[in-house]
Amino acid sequence: MKYTLLSIALLCATACLAQVSLEACQRQAQHNFPLIKRRALYAQSTALTIANLKKGWLPQVQATAQATMQNRVAELPSELNGMLTAMGRDLRGLAKEQYRVGVDVNQMLWDGGRIGAQRQVALLQQQANEAQTDVSLYQVRQRVNDLYFGILLIDERLQLNTDLQTLLLSNENKLAALQKQGVALQSDVDQLRAERLTAMQTTSELQHARQALCQMLALFCNVDRIDSIEKPTSTDNQETAEDVRPELKVIDLQLRLVASQQRALHSSLLPTLSIFGQAYYGYPGFDMFKDMNSRSPSFNAIAGVRLAWSIGNLYTHRNNMQRLKVSLAEIENARELFLFNNRLETIKQQAAIESKRQILNSDNEIVVLRQNVRRAAEAKLANGIIDTNSLLQEITRENNAKINRSTHEVEMLQGIYNLKYVKGEPTIPKQATP
């Protein structure tokens, strides 16, 4: 009850959270993605399989009924039959029409390890399926990253657009004052106003795009809304894909599964030991001399120990083992291919991050220079040296420089988190196996 209340409280707190981090979004998205329900289904299926395997140790009962017509039956030698006839005894021999209704009971004592091996195969199959689910859940992380950094980029654009409108309004007011003094034209004021209205339209477009991205991210996280997000920090990670990528866990479990299947194949070659009992009512019974003289059915029973060794599995054992060896080679090849592609992607992401980092160093200087040029243009316009078009060009260039800087910064952050995704940094806690 305590854990239920705690979960409800956390859910409500998350639903009303105004600002969220990237890691929190990744956790929420993984915990609420519909695919995670497969874990419980895999566990349920495995439990049923193991329960069925355990029933192999229960007594196996078989009811039988048969009726036969035989061309020959057991009978006494003619000399002995003649002697008995001379003594007044006439044995007719067994009837050719025979019938019985019975029950066979077999209790396994040792199965050569078959049930235990099959149980291990079922458990490893469940773990491999769950690990494959983890791979799909891990891919959700990249989708969340794309949405999150898309929102972050729009936030940067919105802030810059707000600054642009403020700057345009300031210059518009200055020109309006000059126009009243007769040193500026109304068309100059209108031109700045038109640019400001265009910037307002851009703000509206960005807000609608942001709203759509926030709704999609909220759907992933299973929350009512996401109002704002935190800007991630550019931290480096030293872990490698060989340690934490879920794809490699799948490969390891697949290798263990094939090894378990090999053990199951070996166990199928071993004999089985069991005790058995048979009972039937019919004709003839075990007392054949009595049944030669009488056609009456009787009750008969037998019990004992049986050692059975089937050689039928030997016919396909070698091919089955070769098939499993091929599977092992394919899985190892999949590991090599994954690591190769992962290293390529790591190099690509590292190069992209370094490129953005170097570009950012010059972006800051470009923005400062563009600001200086724009301020000089404002002074020139006030003194009548340049026209409004020249000022708007400098304002646009400064704004573009700021947009480039913010875009490069967000792209660098996204590249860092893409690299974390490639290398498999475990920002999301691992799920316990149900």
UniProtKB/TrEMBL annotation:
UniProt GO cellular component terms: cell outer membrane; efflux pump complex
Highest taxon, organism lineage: Bacteria
Leader sequence residues: 1-18
Location in the cell: Cell outer membrane
Keyword Chloroplast: no
Membrane among keywords: yes
Name of the protein described by the UniProt record: Outer membrane protein TolC
